[in-house]
Design a protein that fits this description.
Helices cover 26% and strands 18% of the residues. It has helices spanning 3-20, 52-55, 100-111, 125-137, 148-157, 163-166, 258-263, 278-287, and strands spanning 29-30, 37-38, 91-93, 146-147, 185-190, 195-200, 203-211, 222-225, 228-230, 245-249, 252-256, 273-275, 293-297. The protein is elongated.
Length: 298
């Protein structure tokens, strides 16, 4: 064997031993435009034990995350299985109702101080307000409408209305007669209840609503007598009609007032006792005699 062959074999052997001793060989990739080879970046490598979650940018709450795209929960039924659905109370009367039961309702509410007008048989806003107040005081749901529970509570606290309570003579509730009105023939006039009661020996023959003078022209109070009467009369001071006038104190008289009939209590007289029911004052005018007593009281 010549010397050259021996040296070549020795070099091959040395190279094989170096590779086996651990000199790592890096894989290379093409650098593209440069035409050079370079080692891959360590930032793009993943260790063999790394999990997919470790390198994912998606958060659990991110819509792109597989864990956030779980199927939605099924809709919840408004009534649990086996439960009995609630039934709304049956309404007996409400705004807009018009019948005799409404008249009875109003009369019963008036008995216990919740309704302050004559029963009309029509269920309007005033009736709804009175019902709501009653419901609130009794611990019932305040609806303003009459259901079975409200009606039962009202029946338990009132009595059956009389014919006079169902169809009273006046819109306002008559006041208890003054003691001076209990004997003889009397026009008994109450400023407290704003009513006039034509009474004979303590019995009310007729009753009607009245209004009085303003603060500047007040209606005088006391016991008087009818001085004179005039079926048709016009005020000589104010030049306004005063039909069915029954004078009891100077120029002050009980008479019909068209203004009272039209405007109600938003107006006032000049001291006279105004009546707004023409038919009633006409009938009383025919019965009252000169000299009959007139009592104006609180």
């Amino acid at each position: 064997m010549n010397r050259t062959s021996v040296l070549r074999r020795s070099l091959v052997t040395t190279l094989a031993v170096a590779l086996a001793a651990g000199c790592s060989a890096q894989a290379v990739q093409d650098d593209g435009a440069s035409g050079k080879n370079r080692a891959p970046s360590s930032a793009s490598s993943t260790s063999p034990g790394a999990s997919a979650d470790t390198v994912s940018d998606a958060k659990p709450s991110d819509p792109a995350s597989p864990s956030a795209s779980a199927s939605p929960s099924p809709p919840v039924s408004p009534t649990a299985p086996g439960a009995t659905p609630s039934v709304a109370p049956r309404v007996l009367m409400a705004e807009g109702t018009e019948n005799e039961q409404v008249r009875e309702l109003q009369a019963r509410l008036r008995q216990i101080g919740y309704f302050h007008r004559s029963p009309t048989a029509f269920y309007g806003s005033m009736t709804a307000k009175a019902v709501g107040e009653f419901q609130g005081r009794r611990g019932l749901p305040v609806t303003g409408s009459v259901d079975e529970a409200t009606w039962a509570a009202l029946l338990g606290r009132t009595r059956r209305p009389t014919a006079d309570e169902l169809r009273p003579a006046t819109t306002n509730t008559l006041d208890r007669p003054d003691a001076r009105c209990m004997t003889g023939r009397v026009l008994c006039i109450s400023k407290e209840s704003r009513t006039l009661a034509w009474m004979i020996d303590g019995r009310v023959v007729a009753a009607m609503d009245v209004r009085f003078g303003s603060e500047n022209t007040p209606t005088r109070e006391g016991t008087f007598g009818v001085g004179w009467k005039a079926r048709k009369w016009t005020s000589t001071i104010y030049h306004t009609p005063m039909p069915y006038a029954m004078f009891f104190s100077g120029g002050q008289a009980v008479h019909y007032s068209a203004d009272f009939a039209a405007r109600g209590y938003s107006g006032a007289s000049h001291g006279c006792v105004n009546v707004r029911d023409k038919a009633k004052i006409s009938a009383v005018f025919d019965q009252v005699q000169v000299g009959d007593k007139v009592v104006v009281h609180w």
